[in-house]
From TrEMBL:
CDD domains: DPM1_like_bac. This is Glycosyltransferase family 2 protein. The chain crosses the membrane at residues 235-256, 268-294. GO terms for cellular component: plasma membrane. Residues 11-171 form the Glycosyltransferase 2-like domain.
Amino acid sequence: MITKRQAQTLSCVIPGLNEAENLPALLPVLVAKLRGLVPDFEIIFVDDGSTDATPLVIEQLRQTYPQLVYLQLSRNFGKEAALTAGLEASRGQVVVCMDADLQHPPALIEAMLERWSTGLEMVYAVRETRNDETWMKRAGTSLFYKLMRTSNGLRVPRDAGDFRLMDRCVVDALMALPERSRFMKGLFAWVGFPSEPIYYSPAERLHGVSRFRPTKLLRFAVDGLTAFTTWPLRLLSLLGAVLAMLSFSYGLFIIFKHLLYGDAVRGWTTLITVVLFFAGVNMLSLGVVGEYVASIFAEVKHRPLYLVHRRRGQGLAQASEPAPDQKPLASPDQDPQQG
């Protein structure tokens, strides 16, 4: 008979930007659900440089919900950095990551916790459908996951986002990783541990719209590919070898044709076309190599991944840690990421 684990403490990490309208709707539902699941919990909201009334709303909500911890970053560092800040501040035996727009249903946490109690270390939520997205975003997402599968044994679960429950050992492993390029979906897959998907249908967004624009999504995809795959570089090497062989073969053909038949070498238009084609391939190759060089440059600068402007609330933190009104600087050995 398998003895199920019982979680004593839980941390819920919510990174967000301009969520003043969503937080009053989320907190009552989330707190009510967590109170029935674990003896003690904390809710860590990481403010990634909000410009609306989010700080004021948080202060009001903290009067009602003392479990709420507020981390305000010094500026917008991007969701990956904000999520890392929340994970680093968490102290729970299990940690749940979710968004603030209620598209990640708090009711699913109970099922996640039940899966964890059977011995799993991570339970990640997978969207059943993407009908709420444009066809272009769905096509881009499908292409991205296909490209990610070419990496060295790494399998990023398709349609799995940041909504997941993790054991403390998984969070500690993530925080021990030294890289500054925090492509979290890849890192979740890289650390491994016994994991299992749980499927859900995202609810309608209550307020606002998604702030992930096509340019941000493209940048996000490039960061993921350069952080976890080297196939673009290998593809360029293969392309260069193939083009060199074709060019050499064509050159031999022209020489033998001239020697055997005395044909003059003609065709300036063809020559210019070939030259421009190879120039384009060279520029593309330099661009791909440049992305990898830029990633290396970001790593060696050793800037912090994020800076905390202020913290409100102690949560599950021990008394020996910084008080809520102190302003600790987090992750001094990590590199910032633009949002």
